[in-house]
Amino acid sequence: MCGGRRVERPGFYLQPTVLTDISPQNAVFAEELFGPVAAFHVVENEAAAIALANGTPYGLGASVFTADTERGERVAAQIDSGMVFINQPFGTAAELPFGGVKRSGFGRELSQLGFDEFVNKKLIRVAPVGAAPFGPVRVA
C-alpha cells in the first residue's frame, strides 16, 4: 500500500510500510515481521479473523481493534499469542509479563511471572500425625 523502500543511509533501514492483499503464497503471509511494517487482512467475520491470527507458527503479540471492548476481550482470549493488546499496537511495561508462545518463545520475562522463571519452588505438604496417607493436609 505504501512504504517498503530502503532508506538511503548507513545501516539497514526501511520506510514505514503498510501491506495489504497478502496471499497465503507470499512468504510475508506467515512470517513474524519486525520493523515498521503493518500487514492488514480483510476477513468475512470474527471466526475468520481468529483463524487468521492463529494460523501462524508464531505468537509473540497481537492486537485487536474494536469499539466494543467486551468483544475485544472475548476475541483476545481466543488468540494464541503470549500478549494481546486491545485498541493499542502494543503496551508493555516492566510490571507486565512479556513473552510469546509457539515459535516466538516460551515463558515470560519481567513482572512476577518473569521472576518465577528463575526460581525453583518447593512444595511442602504437612499432614497431622496419624492422618490417612492422602487425608487432610495443609500447605506450608
Automatic annotation (TrEMBL):
GO terms for molecular function: succinate-semialdehyde dehydrogenase (NAD+) activity. InterPro entries: Ald_DH/histidinol_DH, Ald_DH_C, Ald_DH_N, Aldehyde_DH_dom, GABD/Sad-like. It holds the Pfam family Aldedh. It comes from the Bacteria. Keywords: Oxidoreductase. The keyword Transport does not apply. The keyword Oxidoreductase applies. Coiled coil: none annotated. This is Aldehyde dehydrogenase (NAD) family protein.
